[in-house]
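If you are new to this repository, start here. Below is one unmodified record pulled from the training split, so you can see the exact layout before writing a loader.
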Amino acid sequence: MGSCLKDNADKVFFYVSKSENARKYLYREFPEHYVWDKQDRCWRERKKRDVIGRISGVNPIEGERYYLRLLLNHIRGSTSFQDLVTVNGVAYSSFKQVAQKRGLLESDQSIIECLNEAITFQMPHELRILFAIIFVYCAPTDVRLLWDTYFDAMSEDFKRETTISVELRVSKTLQSLNLFLESMEKALAYMIFTTRPTNMDNVDYEFPREIQDEMSIQIPPEDYEAELKLNLEQHKAFSMIIDVIQKGKSGIFFIDGLVEQEKHSSIVLC
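And here is the target side for that same chain:
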């Protein structure tokens, strides 16, 4: 838990809270009555009152540090980390669990409904993007449960590789999710598993991960069926373009087609 303390203000708060006067205040009320001494790195009681104090903000994306701050802002009188993480005589291993047990977090029901709806029409690639967005911006209370529930749907495209093991599916799915999360300095693997999957760094990518992720997009059946509906001239153009793509060549194509009301539409493909 100590790793979530980027500054010592949260930690030293407990030592000050051992005094009877300090136990009256929530963490967010502390700056009104105490001042943080940067030089000595300790809280000192204010000599002047009627001041506006400020505490640096914490974002839900910061994980355990956010949940620690949430607890400190709602619980008075805690004098140690052990005291803070104990609820009804049971000591929990994370601040997030404590926040859940104390009813400080909303349920994930709306997230579950969103994902249940999405799996009826979205491809695995799009589901992974949605899962990553939910993970970052919605701060779900039980990420592991969501992972266990929707893993099959999110990894369906990898599952089609007949020789792939479950462990490799897990690694490939996490790699794909982490690709979306890296720009936000988040890594999903650490939030889902107590230890990083051992083979996560051994996934063999023939192409850079960005290209590999785009190549994992599944083509909807209706796109394949659309080829059968092309007329003779359309199919001729289609075949020429596909042939160039499959052979890895470059080319420029000018397509002039008739649309509604006898107007012409021109498309240039490079």
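Two things worth knowing about this chain: The chain has a mean pLDDT of 75. The first strand starts at residue 34 and ends at 37.
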